[in-house]
Amino acid sequence: MTLRFSVLASGSTGNAFYIESEQERLLVDAGLSGKQMDRLFQEIDIDPASLSGILVTHEHSDHIKGLGIVARKYQLPIYANEKTWKAMEGSIGKITTDQKFLFNMHEVKTFNDMDVESFGVSHDAAEPMFYTFHHHGKKVALVTDLGYVSERIKKTVEQADAYVFEANHDVSMLRMGKYPWNVKRRILGDSGHISNEDSGLALADIIGNNTQRIYLAHLSLDNNMKDLARMSVDSVLKERGISLDLMDTDHQSPTTLYEVG
């Protein structure tokens, strides 16, 4: 076995990502209730008690809603940077000192046979960061909650074997939709979320010959549709002569465990 992962849930209502190697089982974010998190793990036949730890991307509720509950229930260590710890401590309940760990931005941590690299993103949180996972020459990149995709991010995540990559909204749907203008402006801004088209443009710059699969993630329930996201990103990629499997994610159902081979 090499790396296996499942996008447990992805969207504006809750996010969670699971990845494993032979010796490690890690959860990234727990943005749904404790009961829902248990259900998601049950659907992919993984016991949450077997997790090695939880990595946190940032303090927004759709990423930490069930964090404290899951960590306390299964006695799991939590890894986050200092600013994120400060921003979320009032929202996750009491966490014992022996469960609190620092994972700084632009750091590589080794978890047994898996190396995890953190990198910063432009988003309206205290110090948001996401992760790439490395194991025996294979690489998986988790990249959402982006206002824009910087050259530094592209360099960090380029040529991964698999991507979980944001395609948050269709610009026309967002502009014509029901959100108040200040919310629309936030989403469209450099600290918000990227559109389907911008997702395709960024992916065209970073995917390599070894890239096998892309999961389109963090879709807005109000300003996007799975078919539209897939078609929009696929159209941009095909304009660049790129044809790849584009996979859906869901805000309340996990993807099938996928083995990076």
Automatic annotation (TrEMBL):
What is an example of a Pfam family matching this protein? Lactamase_B_2
Which SMART domains does the protein's record reference?
Lactamase_B
Q: Which residues form the Metallo-beta-lactamase domain?
A: 13-191
InterPro entries documented for this protein: Metallo-B-lactamas, RibonucZ/Hydroxyglut_hydro, WalJ/YycJ, WalJ/YycJ-like
User: Which PANTHER family does this one have?
Assistant: EXODEOXYRIBONUCLEASE WALJ (PTHR47619:SF1), METALLO-HYDROLASE YYCJ-RELATED (PTHR47619)
Tell me where the transmembrane regions lie: none
Name of the protein described by the UniProt record: Metallo-hydrolase YycJ
- Point out the gene that encodes the protein: yycJ
